[in-house]
UniProtKB/TrEMBL annotation:
Domain ABC transporter positions: 11-247
Protein's UniProt name: ABC transporter ATP-binding protein
Keyword entries, A-Z: ATP-binding, Cell membrane, Membrane, Nucleotide-binding, Transport
Molecular function, one GO term: ATP binding
Pfam families hit by this protein: ABC_tran (PF00005)
SMART domains found in the cross-reference section: AAA
Family: Belongs to the ABC transporter superfamily.
Amino acid sequence: MNAVAAAENELRIRALGKRYASTQAAGGELQVLDNIDLHVPAGRFVSIVGASGCGKSTLLRLVLGLEDQYEGRITLGGQPIAGTGPERGIVFQDHRLFPWLNVEQNIAVGLRNAPLTPAEKRERVAEHVALVGLQGFEQSFPHQISGGMAQRVAIARGLVNRPRVLLLDEPFGALDALTRARLQNELQRIWQAERITMLLVTHDVEEAVFLANQVVVMQPHPGRIRRIVDVDLPHPRHRSDPRFIALRDDVLADFLEPGVLGAEQPPAPDPSSWRLAW
């Protein structure tokens, strides 16, 4: 990645705060996030981990651009984030595929607004079908494939427009343990191949350490960064590696201390009005 591309894909969050109106909170407002400072260099994989109520999903929604009422500053490539846009891809916990479209067509939705010819779009879709290992399933519909395969389609759709940042909101949370582990390996492989900037929200400490260059540990009331842990382990990683186990246990120790657990966050906004590539 050249210096210009690196600068364009750099995500910075400075003095970020977020409040919601609440009749149950003192002063009529609930402080959800407080003084969040985070620098995500281009091509880095950063995981945000914390129990329910620490504000990690709220933080991801703000980076996605779903809300414009907050304190502080969020920039991508030095430019303030304003609303949703195709330069920030998103993968959710549930795949949100269109049931009337097949695998190929669902991925192609991510190119709806792309300035490409039909032939270029077909080539891009085929490339990303191969990237997530779904060759042979291009004509299958969502009800004909497994949940893990559906999440692969969602990842391909999130990447097909070649966004500058891919946001992942608990992308494997609804899957069984075996499928989850397999897709973690797949995401690790995809990140190594694409070197796109990735920001993952998860409550799974092992997943966070397995995938990321850095793990951001958050605590609640209000949500703030407890600490940032560097994961200086080579890829591909192995869960049996003593260094991996030591890092995982180090992060887990934070959640054994009092005051880490918290209440649920407000529900996510209606996605029907989002301006995304798909």
